[in-house]
Amino acid sequence: MGKKILVLGTGAQGSTVAQRMDEEPNVEKIICADADHKAVDELVKILKKAEGTYVDANEVDSIIKAAQDADLIINALPIKFAPKVLEAALAVKANYQDFAATDVLDPWWPKCVEILYNDYGKRFRKLGKLAVIGTGSAPGMMCVAAKNSMRYLDTCEDILMMVYEGVEAKRFLPFWWSPFTALSDMTDPTFALKDGVLVETEPHSLPVTRLFKGCAKEVTLVEHAHDETVYMGLNKDTHFKGAKNINFKYGGVGIDFSTPLYRAGLLEREEQTYKGHTFIPFDVILSHLPPAPKYYNEIKEILDEGLVKDEGAFVVECTGTKDGKKIMVETYLYAPGCEESFKRAGITGEQYLTGQCGALFTKMFVNDDYNQTGLLSSDMLTYEECDKYLAYANELDIILETEVKPYLK
């Protein structure tokens, strides 16, 4: 008997997962649910196994009603809804997948993640079910890449994760995904593990410079708000060989655009007054940004104009010891770029990587590839589960390349 899955949220992420699962032989039915009736209807029209329903995610009972008999609930809604979706999954005894970790359970975000691991983890484990959070490209594939690197180490000292997004259009287009989400990430508190302790760092600070393979020149990357450092910081002893320092760095067109705005205070979210006018700087900046292209014709128009550059990098550097010697484990992720992704699937490189990586975690659910219960973040997969995930990714030309070399500071 095939699996029944509920895809809650029919934006870019949820739609990609639904389309991928429509091709899976072990999926019998896909319930596409959202408050946006048009988005639900448009998605269902292009799928063979789907039916639509409308859900008010503010109401747990509304989610429960949509989730009856579901084997898996995929939460592709904003992170504030996660506690309600988690409660619905527990109520109907379904597995659960989320693309990030909610920040509404406690004022200190690492505490939110601990609550997910401990309180919700215990409840899912009691039911014999599994919840996995952080299941896109970053977090998601980035976590799998970091965990996979631990195979080569006896002890780990430093983990540095870096994403460079260098796709640049000829028109003004600083972000290829939600400008609101992008600008929020540019101003949210950033976290790092420093000397074994999770601490807040300043966004846009602590720059590092790298010349990545396949890129024309050196890139500067800075501290950026991302889930990985919190997950891995909490799991440093159980999954990351006692790592002492963990950072996430981000660079590229979006950072080049946002860093001066951040430093000038133009991403502040509190009301300010200037010459008798009251305004919120963040909202003013946001109102002047073009939306991210998501439809075929929009993307085609941008690509027909020609790109200034179509490059990027997705890299993990782990340093530690093996057989008493100091080494570095360097891992690159290779995936189709923007133009190649459009040729393959009619979407951008950002949509391709994030959506496909997310769908592979779902594929593991429907194929019964996980051997754990409880609540995990994607850095907590076993090596066997990592192997299965990476094998699926290879089929989509999303490939990890790892090199172990002497550490030269």
Automatic annotation (TrEMBL):
PANTHER family in the cross-refs: CARBOXYNORSPERMIDINE SYNTHASE (PTHR43796:SF2)
Domain Saccharopine dehydrogenase NADP binding: 5-101
Pfam families from the UniProt entry: Sacchrp_dh_NADP
SUPFAM superfamilies for the chain: NAD(P)-binding Rossmann-fold domains
Top-rank taxon: Bacteria
Organism field: Hominibacterium faecale
Protein name as it appears in the record: Saccharopine dehydrogenase NADP-binding domain-containing protein
